[in-house]
């Protein structure tokens, strides 16, 4: 579970593509991060009381923002990243005086990555008084949440669910991240424009909507750009531990580059097993690879890996460095794109609330908040964003490269 910047010549092309197609849909392995994650999952300090009546103990008005994602299980790093990034934004906004007289409260529930559990969590959040939903962290759970939200009509703004279908259920749903088709198309364009390869092998999860969506649009644009796909290898959730057969097939294919439209956990397994066997090949993924450095025992296994993503932790922009500094101080690790998307989602809600001018939650609240989403611009840590009426975000992508255990902006 997870939609992984340049440079003058291709930056505009990627920006235009993603502006049109805009649209990012797993547990950490090093001991220190695992301990941090466990502590985060057990921390209830950012969870609203179920008896909250939209006012705090000192009488201030509160706006409850509900989030859902895996805080435990194999995909826990994604949910924890989103929650942690969102909480930093909530704390910043509240410290600055709130918005229109409201203090924000983040209530984030654990879905374990299961759509049925996510729907149950959504119901619990509504019982807790949720006024705005962050949807789900993963695409499958978000699709279920959006369907459940139709009767309630509340604004759903998912930070990271990237499949097209995840927000297509109603006009109340938006996303911060890129959608899968946009990433697949932009990846093929970037590879072609930068002469990274003419022969490509693809390794993807055939039972995962995120992976299949990226593969399909990548394949279509690769054909348009004269890139030959010389090998296609797949796996499923039940066959995600031994990739020796796929690696051998890719090795024999003569590919220059391996496209990896998969999540970080599977990519870490693949690259660890491929170490020393696919020398000379370039590895290129999308936002699902974000966090891969926490999932390998030796960072040399991912040296030189490229990934398309809207967030770079080493971006010198003041807002980015402020966010990174706070995140590192609180969680002892560098924030990934999922954390950045969670942070930006809260600031998008702030901007929408400011746009409406609402000072009380009344019968017009939902309608006004949804309408405001297409009227705002948010200068976030993942870029400057606007939204279309179908819920897609317009913003520029970047390409990152892993060098010496650090992901940094790729300059070619």
Characteristic terms for this protein:
412 residues; alpha/beta; Rossmann fold; 2 domains; 7-stranded mixed beta sheet; 3-stranded parallel beta sheet; 40% helix; elongated; disordered N terminus
Amount of helix: 25-40%
Report on the biggest sheet: 7 strands, mixed
Low-confidence stretches: 1-53
Q: How do the strands of the widest beta sheet line up side by side?
A: 7-6-8-9-10-14-15
Distance between the termini: 28 Å
Number of helices: 12
For the residues shown, what is the average pLDDT?
87
Shape: elongated
Second CATH tier, the architecture of the largest domain = 3-Layer(aba) Sandwich
Number of strands: 15
CATH superfamily of the largest domain: Response regulator
Summarize the structure.
The protein has 412 residues and is of the alpha/beta class.
List the helices and strands and how they pair.
Layout: H1 8-21, H2 31-42, E1 61-69, H3 76-95, E2 102-110, H4 115-127, E3 132-136, H5 139-149, E4 156-158, E5 173-175, H6 180-193, E6 199-205, H7 209-224, E7 228-235, H8 244-253, E8 257-260, H9 264-274, E9 282-285, E10 306-309, H10 318-331, H11 337-356, H12 365-372, E11 378-380, E12 383-387, E13 393-394, E14 398-403, E15 406-409
Parallel strand pairs: 1-2, 1-3, 4-5, 6-7, 6-8, 8-9, 9-10
Antiparallel strand pairs: 10-14, 11-12, 12-13, 14-15
């Amino acid at each position: 579970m997870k939609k992984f910047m340049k440079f003058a010549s291709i930056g505009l092309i990627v920006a235009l593509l993603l502006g049109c197609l805009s649209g990012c849909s797993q547990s950490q392995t090093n001991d220190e991060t695992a301990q941090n994650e466990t502590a985060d999952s057990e921390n209830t300090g950012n969870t609203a009381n179920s008896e909250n009546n939209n006012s705090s103990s000192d009488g201030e008005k509160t706006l409850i923002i509900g989030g859902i994602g895996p805080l435990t299980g194999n995909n826990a790093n994604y949910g924890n990243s989103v929650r942690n990034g969102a909480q930093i934004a909530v704390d910043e906004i509240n410290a600055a005086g709130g918005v229109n007289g409201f203090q924000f409260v983040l209530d984030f529930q654990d879905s374990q990555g299961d759509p049925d559990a996510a729907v149950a969590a959504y119901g619990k959040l509504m019982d807790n008084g949720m006024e705005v939903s962050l949807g789900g962290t993963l695409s499958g759970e978000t699709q279920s949440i959006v369907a459940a939200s139709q009767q309630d009509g509340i604004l759903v703004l998912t930070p990271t669910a990237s499949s097209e279908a995840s927000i297509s259920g109603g006009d109340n749903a938006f996303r911060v991240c890129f959608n899968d088709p946009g990433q697949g198309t932009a990846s093929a364009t970037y590879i072609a424009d930068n002469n990274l390869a003419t022969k490509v092998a693809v390794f993807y999860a055939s039972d995962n909507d995120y992976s299949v969506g990226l593969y399909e649009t990548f394949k279509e644009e690769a054909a348009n750009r004269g890139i030959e796909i010389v090998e296609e290898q797949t796996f499923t959730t039940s066959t995600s531990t031994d990739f020796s057969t796929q690696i051998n097939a890719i090795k024999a294919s003569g590919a220059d580059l391996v496209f990896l439209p998969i999540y970080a956990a599977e990519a870490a397994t693949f690259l660890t097993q491929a170490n020393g066997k696919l020398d000379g090949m370039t590895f290129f993924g999308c936002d699902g690879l974000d966090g891969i450095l926490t999932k390998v025992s030796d960072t040399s296994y991912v040296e030189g890996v490229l990934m398309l993503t809207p967030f770079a932790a080493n971006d010198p922009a003041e807002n980015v460095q402020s966010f990174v500094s706070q995140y590192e101080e609180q969680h002892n690790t560098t924030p990934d794109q999922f954390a950045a998307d969670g942070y930006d989602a809260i600031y998008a809600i702030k901007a929408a609330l400011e746009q409406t001018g609402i000072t009380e939650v009344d019968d017009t609240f939902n309608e006004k908040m949804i309408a405001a989403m297409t009227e705002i611009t948010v200068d976030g840590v993942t870029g400057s964003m606007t939204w279309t009426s179908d819920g897609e975000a317009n913003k520029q992508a970047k390409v990152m490269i892993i060098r010496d255990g650090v992901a940094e902006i790729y300059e070619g």
